[in-house]
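Same chain as my last thread, 481 residues:
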Amino acid sequence: MTTPKGSNRLHTPGISEPIDDYPEIMIPGLLEKTAALHPDRPAFLFEENVISYNQLLTMSLNMAASLGRLGIKKGDRVALFMNNCPQFVISIFAISRIGGIIVNNISPMYVVRELESIFLKNDVDAVIVEPTLWKGLEPFIEKLPIRLAVFSDQLDLARPVLPGRSYDIPDTKIQAVHFLELIGETAPEIKPDQWSYPEPDDIAFFQLTGGTTGHPKAAILTHRNLIANVTQAKAYLGELGRSWQVLLPNMPFSHIYGVTCGVLNACASGWTTLIMTRFSVTDTLAYLSRYPVTILNSVPIIFSGLIEHLEKDSHLESCFSYLKMAGCGSAPLPESIFQRFRELTGVELCQGYGLTESSPVVCSTPVLGVKKAGSVGLPYPGVQVKIVDPSNHLVEMKTGASGELLVKGPQVMRGYYKNPEATQKALSGGYLHTGDIAFIDGDGYVYLIGRKERLMMLTQSLLKPPSGCRRAGNSKRDAFS
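reply #2:
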């Protein structure tokens, strides 16, 4: 079965809004537009530091200018090797602003051999890294043609930066600077004519993934791909996407789920994001108790843990009093968790499905429409899906029959970097071959059954606490009121 053929207007009336056209805007344009509309609105809160959209824009422009002065130019590949922090967000917009390519999803759990392979295969030109993680790069980094290392501790922006602060930079033969030097008032003035502003079809990310063939690869995601998924999300969210929300993304920004759903969607809608450093149930509850969280994005194991705490202590129900939406991804959502969470909080979980190769969201259960047990919902506006025979992709399956799920839409990647064979296999026939076995019912809802090939599970990697992190503390639920 195939979802109805159509243009960008493909949508579900009453559930999502039609997309008449996709904006010709790049990732830095999201921030520029929101900063112009809401300059003083908090863009994010990290520990005790609130950073407004205007401050975020200024920092990203200063950093872009500094990177340009240090020789980073359009097409250069800059690896992000950090845990969640404001510097991660600033770097995304700064690197994008000068047309650089962000090499992302480099896990702190990788061993030296894996790190060396990633840096070598993806032709990394520069790296932004925490000093505590630098030791994983030291054995090989000076052997590679890397021109710049930018160092930043996870907590550098945990509070406002004071003048005259000293910087700790490890010894290295590579040109090295500290992150705070790049974003400060002493950074060079931005001169846009010194570099090329990115075009929609320029590459924005090399997003590392296990991919649809089970081997580490870099999915090539363009500005157009990511902006398309952001636009689809706004259409899917309706009024939520047009109004101010406080978002708690319980996920690492290195993961594609964190990039799009935790950074880009929030910026496009002018939301305030709470940046977490740990992804445990207790830390999630701490944030929910301190701040007026209206949207929570997490994974099934966290929601299961929240249910356990709610069942033990009914007073915790007040932590969810502001919550309007809870999104769940990365792993299948058991029906028991969906039902019990709704009973305890009054909020229905929205199950999403996506892949790194699709920027990432393909389907989601509707925010206001019918949520069917066991289903990952309906395709995003502008997305087509179909079910084919796993052994013969030319044979399309009937309604309700299972087969391999194929996806088509403007958010689907260009291909895999330096891997034409895997690209051809994944994008054969104009569709993304997901490797997932699924079926589509008569109403167009998608149900996942399993994998065509055995792949590494992502959930546990999402939940491992990064090194050197802190927990949330005292109550500040009125911080944004």
